[in-house]
Write a structure and sequence with these properties.
mainly alpha; 2 helices; 64% helix; 85 residues; two-stranded antiparallel sheet
């Protein structure tokens, strides 16, 4: 089971940026492994597992950004203050 850790908005943004940069470097270094007609799959099963893990991490980060955005809009409408944790 995944561990959870509280991060503020800046830390979340930095993590999302780091994942994006790592993803770009990963794709560039493994371009020769791509399977024609399947742009999200590569030939190496171990590397494919890493890709799938990165995808799950990215989806979780995006979901957290979306939740925080919804919370902030709701708080703004209700006259609440911007949360930082």
């Amino acid at each position: 089971m995944a561990q959870t850790e509280r991060v503020n908005d800046e830390q979340l943004g930095d993590t999302l940026l780091d994942v994006g940069i790592n993803w770009e470097h990963f794709v560039a270094s493994n371009n020769d492994q791509l399977i024609p007609d399947q742009p999200t799959k590569i030939k190496d099963p171990a590397m494919q597992a890493k890709i799938d893990s990165l995808d799950q991490i990215t989806e979780a980060l995006v979901a957290e950004v979306n939740l925080r955005s919804i919370d902030e809009r709701r708080e703004s409408r209700e006259g609440g203050r911007h949360r930082s944790s």
